[in-house]
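Re: duplicated header lines in exported structure tokens

Our pipeline writes sequence and tokens for each protein into one text file. With two proteins the header for the second block appears twice in some exports. Here is an export where it did not happen, for reference. First protein block:
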Amino acid sequence: MPPVKRTKINESATARSLKKAGALLVADDALFINWREKLVSLAALHAVPTMYGRREFVVAGGLISYGASTVDQYYQCGIYAGRILKGAKPADLPFLQPTKFELIINLKTAKALGLTVPLIMDDCRRGDRMKRRAGRQTSSPGL
């Protein structure tokens, strides 16, 4: 799919590209977050399995996401803010990279696409569980 201008998503060009695609990967970008409802609906309309970088897409009805835990990133920001308020110099604080990642699968969307999620995904290791959100069933490690 060609790059998308930040001003709008051209639905006809996107639809033509989706018809040719066997699958789609949507990058973790602010532009795509703002257009998540449109992207999810276009992927569903053309029955294209799509993977996203943020959980918000799966909550909106997308198939699967894998990316850093936003909740954990905010938690780490709070720790940094606390250190700074206690007198630490921001330049002296170490640069942190995400350490907690989430794989989230929308089982309803998978079923609509005719995809089967292996049983092992239903009960992943480390106490992962199934979670229902706003009528949509998702499998989410670490929730």
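Second protein block, exported in the same file:
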Amino acid sequence: MKTEKEIILEAILSDRRNGIKLYPREYLPVISPYGDRNKALNRIQRVFSDNREAINEASDSTRCIEDNTSIEEYFDYAKTGKLLNARLENFKYNKRVKFSDPTVIVFSSDVHLGSAGCDYDSCMEDFRFIKDNDVKIVSVGDTGEMKKEFPKNLFSILSQVLSPDMQSDLIAKLFKALKPQILGAIEGNHGANSRSGNEHAESIAAKAAGVDYFQGNCLLEIDVDGAKYRIFARHKPMSSSKLSPLIGARKMATMESADCFVCSHIHRPTFGVDWVLGKKRVCIITGTYNTSANYSRVGYGEYSARDEFPALLLFPKEKKMMVFASMRDAVKHRNLIMQ
């Protein structure tokens, strides 16, 4: 079995030989750090510094012209996405899971528990529905409001209806109740530092509940009775636009090789299907329960933020995905095909 250093170095050398030069932070998904992000980044930087000569040699070996490669072969290489898939194989999946029956996955985010603007009735209703209908869930960040230190806006701290410590306790209880169904929780931008140091507050809650917690990006492989699906998720989109809220997820789809790309943060739920390199890729932006917050209203329009969370239905044996605006519609469809 390869060591972490060998995995990182192999990914770096492979990229350099293909003329790709990335920053050390871009290799964080290679090792899928569960602990301190800064410590993981330091380990990657040490690989760069300890193997500088080999990395430079790999960079120098890059050839702009391949005399023995035909035009047709280059076009075939581009159409099939071999380069993207080769890079993905270097990356370590954050998690691999297996299911035997059609599977519904909902992407929840921006709950903002503890904020005055959270729709607690809608949140509780969805929580019960998920628990009662065996819906799998990926939490894409900002489950709590978690405002402890925010010098630009004192009101955002004082207006919390639950303290950060109470929020952490509530999140841990919710995660624990849904533990058999939670595929993972991803770090968001709302995360007050805990009393024990610099660890993200939601990370502490997830650990207390025994739920997998991921920093930055998350890459999941889901096997549904032999049909394998790759889901790439992160909290913040790679770019944003008020006119085209889906653009951040679509940008990820052109850079990574997966079947579904999920972002949150902007509170505007939407989804779409793109064809990239001849493959169908589902792009999703999640909604929020914090629909009356100033950020939801001023940042993206009075009525744009909604408590809607798109869901995927993954079919067994033969690879097939369906995306729904509502997890309730996805569950209805799943129940029909299982009859």
